[in-house]
Amino acid sequence: MDIEATKLELIHLLLQTEKESILKKLKSVFEEEKGDWWDEMSEKEKEEIKTGLSQADDEDYKASELVMKRFDKWR
Fold it and tell me: Which of 16, 23, 41, 61 has a CB 3.0–4.6 Å from the CB of 45, allowing a cystine?
């Protein structure tokens, strides 16, 4: 069975059920699988984000209009 057929079958079963326990279990499965995007990032990416946030806190940034103006010649 392909993934689309499986999805349709699950949708059908989901719409038919009146059991709250099943709905809670399904919801918990999705919540467990969601994960946190921060945990999936490399240490380098995390450090770059932290640096950017620190710079923003210190008001060490350029307005987006100035940045876009600088790169206009390539657009």
Answer: 41
For the chain, the domain total comes to: 2
How much of the chain, in percent, has pLDDT values that exceed 90? 61
Give yes or no: residues 42 and 26 share one domain: no
The predicted model scores a pTM of: 0.45
Residue reference for tokens 């103006």? 69
CA–CA distance, 68 with 62 (Å, rounded to integer)? 10
Residue numbers of the domain that contains 49: 37-74
User: CA 29, CA 24: separation in Å to the nearest integer?
Assistant: 9
Q: Are residues 42 and 59 in the same domain?
A: yes
The answer to whether residue 52 scores a pLDDT higher than 90 is: yes
Q: What would the two tokens of residue 23 be?
A: 């709905």
Asked if pLDDT for residue 75 goes beyond 80, the answer is no
Radius of gyration of the chain (CA): 23
